[in-house]
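Sequence only, no structure available. Ideas?
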Amino acid sequence: MLQHLHISNYALIEKLDINFSNGFSVITGETGAGKSIILGALGLIMGQRADAKVIKTGERKCYVEAIFQVQGLQLEKLLEDHDIDFDEKECIVRREVTVQGKSRAFINDSPVPLSLLKEVSSHLIDIHSQHQNLLLGHEHFLIETLDTIAANPQVLLNYTTQYTAWQRATTELTRLQEQAEKDKNDTDFFNFQLQQLEEAQLIDGEQEQLEEESNTLSHAEEIKQSLFQASGLFSVDEHNPVTELKSSSQILSSIQKIFPIAGTLSERIDSVRIELEDIADELDQQLESVEFDPARQAFVDDRLNTIYSLEKKHNVETVAELLTKQEELKNFINKIENIDEEVAKKTAEVNKAEQAMYAAAKELTVSRQKAAEKIEKELITQLQELGMPGVRLKFSFEHRNQPDSNGADKVTFLFSANKNTAMQDVAQIASGGEIARLMLSLKAIISQSRNLPTIVFDEIDTGVSGTMAEKMAEVMNRMAKNCQVLCITHLPQIAAIGVYHYRVFKKENEHGTSSHIDLLSTEERIQEIANMLSGAQMTEAAINNAKSLLKLQ
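Reply:
I predicted one. Tokens follow.
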């Protein structure tokens, strides 16, 4: 329940501190006194849009703070999941607005995003303003009401899960079908690319070998001339290095008995000689092998041009990458050829998900229809007490062509205040007073099913008066046995039934006009209700009438 409200520098309120009690409280005051200002401040606590215009003239910021008793509301997990300290007794919600239009929100002194403020406050307080009477014509509100009364969170969760799975599978199927269509259109191109690669009969590593051979062939004469010159040095009779090394080895070998190290040197020279002989043989072989072959040169260059062209086309640099691309194209074309199987498999998955979704939707519909029967009976009983003896009403269910996130139900609330008048959509047929009584009765039923500690009614009595207003007040008083009820009203019949009575008023001083709120004593209540009955001219009859309404006579 709302235990304490502090408002600072908000509109006409410089500073306001007010305590609230459990049960049924009424708030009265002349038009323009500031009742709507207090309601607006509570709206900030609930996460409504902040506007710098609400800041009291001359001030830099305003703030609103509300303290709620939260025993039994099971907020611990919600708060702790967002790293907010949890107090089992109370929850402090604060909202600040600066002249720059910036807004900050706090829960138990921890800064929080506006989305979390809205979520937490929705568990703490419900404000029913006049425009919410129009919600009776809104399908989303009707479905939400049915689910609240049905108390079907698991059924609702199951449907949401199945609907999400169906939606995801449908999206994947659509994407697969679009991709399949695109890939099939590109099949000829992919086949052409694969054919080019396969016809090339590429071999990993051949590019490097061909480039080396091309380089040799293009410089054959220069290479052959150099090999000839190098080989010739081994062929001369005078200063032939092989012959001279052989002679040197023999000379050293002849003295190894008297100079042992000469033997070792002779062996080393023989090793060098043998290596030179091998080199001389290799030079002769290479000299014979190197020949300018125009046909081979043309083949090698043509082969390299084929490889270079394919590499450029596929934006790669090696034959190995071309071979990888070739394998990818094979796999891709094979996938395209089998895409119909994938589409069929995904279509079966969508159909299965759709069946599960419709089964969950049917279960959800059944739970809502049971809730509708309960609401209809209780509403009729309550509305008959509120002056509608011939009232008829019904939740009309139709099946949606396409389910949405709320299910497969299309719900309309049909209503007739008279037995002989056909039921129609409530938004088209009900008067303002009838809508007010309907919404009050509906909120009373909801309050029994939903663990909501505080409900605020802003002039729920619009369009009613006299005895009917008194009966509406009795309904709110009964509601207050389950939760805290605050009612802003202009009707003395409702004000008199409130257990606690607050009056909003304005004061003028040298600094301007400011709004205030007081909890009234019994004598002050008599005066306030008498004023509401008689207007500006206070009469003895009005005072006696006020006492009668308060049951003080």
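The mean pLDDT is 88.
Hope that gets you unstuck.
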